[in-house]
Design goal:
Helix content: 40-55%
Strand content: under 5%
Distance between the termini: 20 Å
Structural class: mainly alpha
Radius of gyration: 13 Å
Order of helices and strands: HHHH
Number of strands: 0
Number of helices: 4
Length: 76
């Protein structure tokens, strides 16, 4: 996956870069993260590993918090 190995700052910049994120605003990123396509990553089927040990609901709460607080990128 393209975000593997990125720092928190690099990941944040990737999410916010419209050239790399499907031309989405940060609010549109929230909508995208709630789609069945993205949710599949948390339940990819037998024999496959979910993309995160964090639940999708917890992930969405953190994404919403990030956007609500201004979507600032960490310093590193």
């Amino acid at each position: 996956m393209i975000w593997e190995g990125l720092s928190n700052r690099q990941l944040c910049e990737l999410f916010k870069d419209r050239r790399q994120n499907g031309n989405r605003s940060v609010n549109e990123i929230i909508e995208h993260m709630a789609t069945p396509l993205v949710q599949w990553g948390w339940n990819p089927g037998e024999g496959r590993t979910p993309i995160s040990s964090m639940s999708h609901a917890n992930f969405m709460a953190k994404v919403n918090e990030w956007v609500t607080s201004g979507a600032a990128c960490p310093s590193r």
